[in-house]
Structure formats: C-alpha cells, structure tokens
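Pilot study result, target chain (1220 residues):
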Amino acid sequence: MPITLLWAVDVYGRVYSLSTASGRWQRGDDKLLELKRVSAGKGRSWGVGCDHHVYLNLMPSETPIRFREETYENQRWNPVEGFTDVLLPTDRWPWSDVTGVSAQPLHSFACHSHSWEWEGDWYVDLTCGGEPSQTGGWEYAVDFPANFSPEKKWNSCVRRRRWIRYRRYTAQGSWAKIPLDQPQKAPLPLCDISCGGWEMSDQSGRYPCLWGVSQQGQVWFREGIQPRVPEGSSWEEVGVPKEVAQLCAGPGDLLWALLWDGNLLVRMGLSLDSPTGSSWVEVETPGKEVEALHVAVGVSVVWVVTKDFKVWFRRGVNSHNPCGSGWISIGGEMMMVDVGLHDQVWAVGEDRGLYFRMGVTASEPSGSGWIPILALWGNNTELAPPRDDFGGCLTEASQGSVLSCTDSESEVGPVDQPTHTTDTAATLDPPEASTTAPAETLSTPPPATQDAPKSFIPTSDSFITSLVSDRERSPAAAPRSRSEAPPGEGGGEPLSSAGAAPSSSPNSTTPLQTLGSGSEAGQGAVAVPWSTVDLEGVEAARSGQTLGGAAETSMGRGGGGAGAAATYPLGLDPLPGAGESDAPVWAWISGGGCDVDASSLISWLSPTGALRSSMSLTPVQSAAWSGQKEFPRQEVSKKPLERSNSVWIRSGALRWWRDWKPQRWVDVSVALEQSTDCNGRKDCIFFIYYTQYDEKKYLHVFVSEVTAMVPVLGDCHHAFSVYTAQRTRRRGPLLLAAPTDQDMTDWLSLLSQCCCEWRGIRGPPSRQALWSTTSKGDIMVHEPSTLLETTSHPLACEAMFWRLVPGHLRCVQSNSLGLVWGIGWDGTAWVYSQTTIPEGAAVQMQPQTDVRCIHVYENQRWNPMAGYTDRGLPTDRPMWSDESGLKEGTKASTPPPSPQWSWVTEWVVDYSVPGGADKDGWQYAADFPVTFHGHKTMKDFVRRRRWTRKCKITLRAHWQQVPPIRLSDISLMPCLAQSRMEQVPVWALSDKGDVLCRLGVTPKNPAGTSWLHVGTDQPFKSISIGGANQVWAIAKDGAVFYRGSVSPQNPAGECWYHIPSPPRQTLRQLSVGRTSVFAVDESSNLWYRQGLTPSYPQGSAWELISNNVTKVSVGPLDQVWAVADGVEGFPAEAPGTLCHRVGVGPMQPKGHSWDYGIGGGWEYISVRGNATEPARTIVPAAIATQQSPLPPPTRENGSAVVLLVPVSPPLALKPPSRND
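Predicted structure:
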C-alpha cells in the first residue's frame, strides 16, 4: 500500500501530517504557515491560510513537473531584404502563439510564482512535425495561416519557427502560495476550499477540481488544473441562490454546499463536459429545528453534522441521484467530519479529538463505530489521546477575537489599532486579587465596552468559533481554574481586536505588549497583520504541571480567563505556553488523500490503548468504557463505541427491460440499501440507475412496497420480475435479468429476505397460508390476515405479499392442519415437510427432481406440385414454431427452460397430442390456426406434428416424495382452524385417470401409508373434496359425478352419482368448499352449483358466474379464488392472473365482482388452508334484528352442523386501541 498522509489543523492554525507508515504527527516545515482549513486529494492538498490565500502542497514524486512554454517567430519575405520580421498590417504578430492571435514576445514570459524556476534559456525547435529539419527550424507557407512545411518553395512568402523554454515546479513536498490571478473582479478573500472530482464516474483519472467559498458567500471554481499546471489558471464564479458558508466536493461528481441559514444545496449536472454543473437543488436538513453545521461528501455518501453536534448520514446518494433519499442518524457527537478515499470517514469530536469511523465498506458505508486516532506527538513517547477536557463553549472574549480578524494588509489595508487596549491592560487585576477575591469583587469591563457592545456576526475565519458561538454553556462544562473568571466579571474582558495570550514565563512577551501600550499605540505603531486563533478552552487543555506558577504571572500580565481567545503577531513563533508542549487542540481534519480502508492495519488506528482512557464521545460512554481494563486486541476491535444506526448496501450490475418505446434490454447498475436504527428496525430501498440520452436517471422501489419477486421465462434466461401494488395495478412489473443464474438466485434471496424482515415473516409458511405455482414451476406463498376475506373492506389483491418457497411443482394443495401436497410436472407426488414439524425443530432439505416436456411444432403447407412441404405462404407461421405459431423455434435453437434444467432425452415425435395424430404424428387442418385433427381430408391444406424432448431439474427443498403412483390431480379436505381429525381425507387421480384415496394421512404423518383404489367406469381428470366429505369429480368426457356415503368410517364411499353438466359445456376442473361448488369448463367459464343442502348435497342447477377463468379454488370459508386467463384492457400480459372473488358471504355465496392481483404466468392457486376468520363488525342486537330478518347462518365442518346465534353486545363499546 502506498504511503499517504492524513492532514489536520489545530486551533492555532498549525498544520500537521500523519503518515500511514509512521505513528507520529509531523508539523510542516514552514513554522510561520497558518492555515484555517485543508482539503486533501490524491497526491495533493489544498489549504486556505489565515491571510485568505490559497496554498498547494504536492506530494513528492520521482517524475518532475515540467511545463513547456513556446512561442512562434513569424517572418514575411519582401524583394529587398528577403525574410524579415516586418509584417503586413493584416498579418499576425512577429512573436505569437501557434494561432497567431495572441502576441507572445520572449520577454513576456515569466514564472507565475516562486514555486517555478526556469531550467534553461530559450532555444529553437529544430524539428518540424517531429522529424529533424535542415532549415534551422523554419517552416514555410504561401501565407498566414496556410499549412506550413519544412520545404521552401518558390511561392513561400511567409515562414515561422518555434522557440521553447521549460520551467520546473520546485515546491513539491511543501506548502506553496497560489499567486493571485487578475480577474475582472477584486481578489477573493476565501474562507473555505474543497478539492474533488478526480474520480468522475464517466472516466477515471480525471484532473482534480477545486472549489472555494468567499467571505461574501460566493462560490468559485478553479479552472485550468492539469498535471503540468497543478496550480490552475483562474477563478470562475458559480452563481448560487443564497450565501454559502461551506461546501464539499467528492472524488466523483457530487458537490454539496451549506448555506448560512443552515440549509443544504446540491449541485446538479456535474460531468466532464460541464465541470461546474448546471443548477442547484435545495435539500432538507436532517432536523427541522436544528440547522446543519458541516457537510462532507464522498463518492456515494454524504455526512452532515448539525449544530447540536449530531452526525447524520444521507442514504441513496450517487451520481444518478445526487440529492439522496433520506437521513439516517449516526451515533457520536462531532464538530466536523471529512470523507476520504474509499468513503472512509474522519472527524473532529466535540472534545477536539480526532476520530476514525471503523467498519466503513462498500456494503456498509455508514460504518459501525468511532475509534480515536492515536499517534505520537512531537518528541513525546506517549500517545496523544482525544481531549475530553475541552469545554467546547465560546466566551465573550473569543467572540471579540472572531470579530477582530480581518484581511491581511496586502489585500484589505492596515489594521486599525484598538482604542481601549491600554485601558484594558490597565484595569486587569493582579494575580493575588484574581485568586483570592470573589467573583463579585472583580473589576468590570470599561464603560466604553458596555455602552457600545459589538454585536457578534459569525464569519468564516474560524470555523469552530463562528459555528458554535450560539451554543450555551451547559452546567456539565469542564471546571475552570482558579484564575478563570466569567466574561464580564474581570477575568476575561472583551477585546475589540486582540486578546491576551498567556505566556509561560514572566519574561515572555505577549502579543498585547508587542502592540504597545498607552501613547505608543496611539502614535502610529507599526501595524502587524494578525491572524485568527481560536484558544477556546486552552487553559483546560493544558496540564497543571505545564503552567505552574508562570500561569498566574501570565494571567496578571495578559489578563483573560481560560476560555478567552488570543491572537499573536504573524511572524512570531507560537508561544510554548499556548499549547505547544501539549497535544494539539484540533479544529480540522482532511483524509481525502489518506489511502485507508476497513482492512488496513495502521498503527495509529489501533483501538487497544485509548479504549481504556478516553475513547468515548459522551460521559456515559466514557464511564462505561473506563471499567474495561484489559481486552484482547481482536475482541476490542470488534466492539463499537455505541450502538448507532447503520446503512448496508449491496450493489451490482443487472439488465433492465425498459417498458417504453423503444422497448429493449438496458444495462443498469443496481443497489439495495438497507438502514437499521438503534432499535433494530430495518428499512430498505432498491435503486436502479440507468442513462437515457446521456442523462443520468434512476428508479427506486421501497422494499416495504414490494409484493413479489418471481423468476420468469423469457429470452434472457436469468430474468425475474419485481412487483409492487402500483405496478400490479398497471400490469407492468419491474423486469430485471442477471448475468448468471447464481446472481439471479442471490438477488432473489436477498430481496426476499429484506421483504420478510420488514414484514416480520420468519420461518416456514403457516398453516393458513395461500399456496400458488407459476407456469415456470416456482412455488409462491402468501400469509393471510383477517382483512383478506372481510366483506366490507377486504385487503386489495394487488397488495398481497408473495414469497418464494424452494421447490418445483405444477400444482399444490393444502389445508388448515398444515398438510401440503404437490404434484410435479412429471406426475410425482410430494409432501411439504416444514409445516407439520414441531416449532424449533430443524428439517434437512432433500433432493427434489422434476421432469418436463418441451415441445416444438413442425408446420407444413400443401401445394399441387410437391405436396406438403416446408415452404409456406408469406402470411403463414414459421415452419418451426411453438404451439401458438407466434414464436419461431427449431429443435436446434430450443434450449431448456433455464440453466438449472438439463436434457435427458432426444427429440422424438409426440403421438399423444390432443385431437389425435396419424401414424407419422401429423395433425391436419384447413388452414392456420384452426382446430387440428388426426386424419387427412380433401380440404386440409396444412399440417403439423409435435416434437417433444424431456428435461430434468434437480434442486434441494423441504419436499418429501410419495411413491410410487404418478398423479394428475389431488385434493385435501378443507377444515376450520380449530378442527381436529384423526385422519385427513386425501383424494387423487392417477395419470391414467384412476381415482385414489390416501389412507393414514395425519399431521404427524402427512405422507400417509397407502393408496386405496376407488372403482370407476371411465377415467377422470379432476377431483375435489369439500366439507362434510363431499367428493366431486369430472370425467375426461366432461361428465360430473358425486361420490356418496363418504365418511371417516367409510373413506372410499359407496357409489358415484351422475350430475348433469351445464348445457352444451364440458367441464374440466372443479373445487368444493364448505357449502359451495364451483367449476370451470373448457371455454374458461366459471359455474356455480345451486341448491346444495345437507339433505340434497348434489345441488339442483348450474349458474354461470364469469368467464375468463382457467383454475378455481374454494376455501374452507367458501372464499373463491381463481386464475384468470387475462385482465381486460391488458392484452399484452401473459396468461395467468390471480384474482379474488369479492363479496362472497353466507347470504351471497357467488360474490359480485373480481379483484385482480399479481399476474402474468400463474398456473395454480390453493386457498383451502386459509381458515382465518374475517374481522367482524359488532352490531347491536336490536339493530341487527331489524335489518337482518333472515335466520342465522349455519357453519359446517365435516359432518357437524353448528347453529350461530347472535349475542347482544353491551351498549357501551370500548373503542379499539392503537395496538389493536
């Protein structure tokens, strides 16, 4: 890892650097240099001095920085003198640039600053176009500005040659002042600076950008920064709607600004083509009542400190969404933060110590806790821990120090001398008085100060002083020394332009004495430029051994308490008594150039030593950690300082189906951002970032709004759909595709886990769950609530949350006792083993296999010359296609459904097609796409045959195989939640149409023991058992039968009763509930059987309810759910939509309308396990009797009939609580 530096500034303006290869702070070589702020980047650091100049520090490099200056000497030929520098009035300058527009004589070139020096003198470039020239460097042309060449011709009337001179940058490794350019406006008194932009998202290796803020709140951008011009060329003003106090630029294209009123601005449109951006957008602050104090920006993170010193993290920030999506509170109290490389976070704590945010990674950008930066200081061998004795409050004297700071004399003018300096010095009490007299007897400020107090106006000269000045001193502040007195009570009097700095010895000269006293100051003493120094709490920062008795002497000479701010002349070394011998009191930190990540092993980031002393940020945490004497390094490093909020991010690259024209797959980057508060509550947002017409955009989906994640079949094998209630209503799910099947599985698992955690869903499906399968074979489960089946305000079907259960089935059936059976595409029966196990018991996943047939149709058309050939009409379907003929697919180009499937057979002709086939497998028809039949007639001009191939999938799931008979349909008897049965009736149909009854099925033995064959005179295709052991079945010819005398004692019944089918309709599937029977015919019509009573269970007649239904399921409460063929108004949606029959009740068992839910590719649904009673509205008995003259309903369960009698509730009803 390369050696990089961490920069910090103390309250005196001294600049320090800490190398990743050492453990000691190093002060800059220039002892007179005083900086207010530092902004570090890769290989360079920028600073703003107390003189408001900008300074640059470039890291030393083996490659020197050299810049080539060049100018062109131009001549014209005349008949008398030949080529001379006497040109025509319309010609270019005799000495100019390559274009000839600007005049550039040799004497006009000069080094811009003392950081540059010439390497040699001017010399002529003897090459032309990169090749050596014999003409002395001259290039000839007919005229200006024609093309020049080294060859002189008869018509060459002009010539030129290039002069070159190099200058070298000599200030690497030191702080060099950037020279002031000469803009149209006055020189800029900058108060803040920020470096960034070297990692623009469009391209790597971007030159850094420099931003600045003036004292007037203007924003400036430094132009012309290049590798060979590190200082840049000029400043460009960027308009802002309000006055800016501070800004921060990230390594990418993020720029945030802090306004003086505490609000935040975000710069939009930053890019390589537009480095200054296009517009500003205001962003709300983290707290409505607390204003922002400081902002720091990284590549994709934003941190903010508010005026109550709370730290906040902005979630959802990146180049596509610079404004982010919300604030997350982070533990700790800081005065400022800085984001460095790899989005690592550095901070200055409220105790003026330096801290590092540990645990910051790409997946967890908010980190886990704060640890102190422990490095050696000066010549000491002890570490410099964070300061927990720094008060952090601003006295009245320090406010005066802020007001007294002005620009240097070279920029603004001489500093006005204070008028009452002598009086202030004269009224200071001697040390004896200040130590013995009570506070009430101390001298008061001069009358002039009291009569005309100077109002405090925050400026940007001292960041910490100006922004914490409005913070009141808390009772828990650090205790003051005996010599310290409150402002206004004689201990620390307000100073208009300079405060008194305590000295370490009686012979030390204080800044106040340097200014002069009495008449000397009034007789025009030399005005010395003064710099702002924030000495807030400096006495508390010094130890008693350092002060000794000299402190009292200095207090007697210089006055002021421990909290008073002092200044010292620019040009004098800092006094050793003002914090020189002790650890620095930090005011600023910059880690933009420090290459540290969460896995770096840095000696001064070890949390072992300081954890026992002053590691915490609050007194409570300090007391808690002080009791921990010894900890192993590994144990301590894993323990954060506080249990704070955190943000976790998973990012990746997917493909997104853009559902507007032109519809196509688009490469996008995605991110799942999850925030966790202190209480463990999690919130997630799924972002999709894309680019349209060179404009960065994004989509976001709250995980709380996601209703399903379903794998889909399509052109891209690894695709899945993300549903929300709104997208389900529009019939347009979010379609994404992963590069590999493993990536798709990982994303589905991650999203599903986040959704379940947010909804509090854990463990296997409940006994009341709704089960469904997709046409792809995936199994989906929904956990019902009491609102699902309410008649007044049922839960919208589009808002139901479906989660994926491992396995692969064609259909699934369940009941409320926890029994779940399923049938694979190959007819294998499976039993789910998770719902019937004891709570807490672990069940191992078992291998589950399924075999599916893939079909391809070969189409041909007859012509008189050659008969049936594969040459069709232009309007015909492809000669190799699917069953619909809309999609072309040959045997060679047809793959398995997904990479999880593998071929187990070769392509063969399928003779068992519906409608029959001849000996070669052909089916005939008059034209495409009419009904095909198995024999040829004179009117049949087209034919087709189906080719089939089997593929197999193997996975691990909680399904247990039930051998040995292959099934085509199955049904479990529904029951209420409180029901208890020794054996659960299970009826099934074999793949040959035989009726079977499973014996020995119990909740403890869900697979049962054996099959009992039930005799029939023809094969069946659908069967269902309802309440009271009602068994209904449909034969393959569409005839309906009812099985009589089925009971627990006689599980197989006695005989079949034929039930007439609906007129001119052939039924194909039915479902029996508690008191109702619904069936679906071949034309996708839904029928209801009327007249079912306990005495006449066969019913009386069929009633048409609806069309467009392919599957129906009736639950134990007679609730009706179905799989619709489609939704009206959305013809492009794939067949198979889940829908719920609304209004079903005892008085209206047929319902009145459909509520469409998730759709597009659903195959089967089972609600026969949902025995959750709907929420009932309590109505007084008298009113209920008047409005409901019908007799009370009956509830059937098995063979029992229970009479429900309404009970009169009390007149005074207690309103439900919020928790209810």
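One observation from the pilot: DSSP finds 15 helices and 73 strands in the chain. A full batch analysis is planned for the follow-on phase.
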